[in-house]
Write a structure and sequence with these properties.
One of its GO terms (biological process) is negative regulation of neuron apoptotic process. By secondary structure, the protein is an alpha+beta fold. It has three domains: 91 residues, Sandwich (Immunoglobulin-like); 95 residues, Sandwich (Immunoglobulin-like); 104 residues, Immunoglobulins (Immunoglobulin-like). Helices cover 17% and strands 35% of the residues. The strands form six sheets. Strands 2-9-8-4-5 form a five-stranded mixed β-sheet. Strands 12, 13, 15, 16 and 17 form a five-stranded antiparallel β-sheet that branches. Helix 3 packs antiparallel against helix 4. The termini are far apart.
Length: 392
Amino acid sequence: MISMLCLMLFVPRVFSSSTQVAVIFPQDPALWMGSSLTATCTVSPERGLHANTMYWTLNGKRLPSSTYGLLSTNGLSVTLHRLNGSQQQSGDNLVCHSRDGHVLAGSCLYVGMPPEKPVNLTCWSRNTKDLSCKWTPGGRGETFIKTKYTLKYKLRWYGRERECEDYSTGQRYTCYIPRDLALFTPYEIWVEASNQLGTATSDVITLDILDVVTTDPPDNVHVSRVGELEDQLTVRWGSPPALKDFLFQAKYQIRYRLEDSTEWKLVDDVGNQTSCRLAGLREGTVYFVQVRCNPVGIYGSRKAGIWSDWSHPTAASTPHSEPLQSGSCDPKSGEQNSTLRRELKQFFGWVRKHACGCSGMSIKLYDQWRVWLQKSHKTRNHVGIHMEQKKN
């Protein structure tokens, strides 16, 4: 098809006889980069054209006469050395012209490299009924000539070989199989790359559709403060819609970072709950939070699926702690506040070390400790006030 498109460019514009005007040999050759080529243009004797009146062009640029060779009165050759990769995948245009510039004949040169073995073949399913696969061209990926990639698959033991047909996903090196897939049976999947200079085949991967299920990221992610606690934020999100349509649950991960940082901190113990309290944060600081989902227990399968993409970042800030008032007539009150704050930080440091993340136990311990310290603080204040009244 490419050759036909290329040759359409070289229909003679003046000569109208049914007899062929001229012939270029070799016609539409495929050549390795760095190779040389000698092509000949032979004009039909009936035309009365002499070879020394002809000239050659490559992609519209006239080639120097020093590269020509006069073969006969009606035959002219041209020699090209150390050819570079084709400037267009439809081939470079080598054209033989008459003195007045009219096209006598043309050929397409396909100069490039054979494909290398495709790599990084991965597949995933959105609904247990379809399959999408993507891969990466081997080596540098550039062959300079049109290279066809074909995704092939078959049931591992008894299926016939089939080809994926839908490559219109908007992404290169991706193919989509929308239907007619079997469950509980492994597939063998591979990619073949081919062009006019050779063929290469990827490694074969084996998978069960149920082992590569993924979902969209969790939606409706909200991040909010926990009262006036300056070191905590609550994260809540909605389950992906696919979880409601199929017999599997999910586990989640959260990651968060400071506004002015690119380093994410991962919370990996969220489980299947759809909320989490982040603790041990900096006060008065903006945090960005993301959540992702991994389906598990698909139709009873013990294997986890594939992690979804991360949700869009959601931002929230922790409160500022209230500063101690200066000039207080009762320094003991300030000392008690400072002691309470120090005790809270010490205990939470232990919580973070031994029960960090979204563990319900860590948050429960922390809340109980905070309530106890607040009661203790009120008791100390009450006793202090009572003793002052007695002194007066």
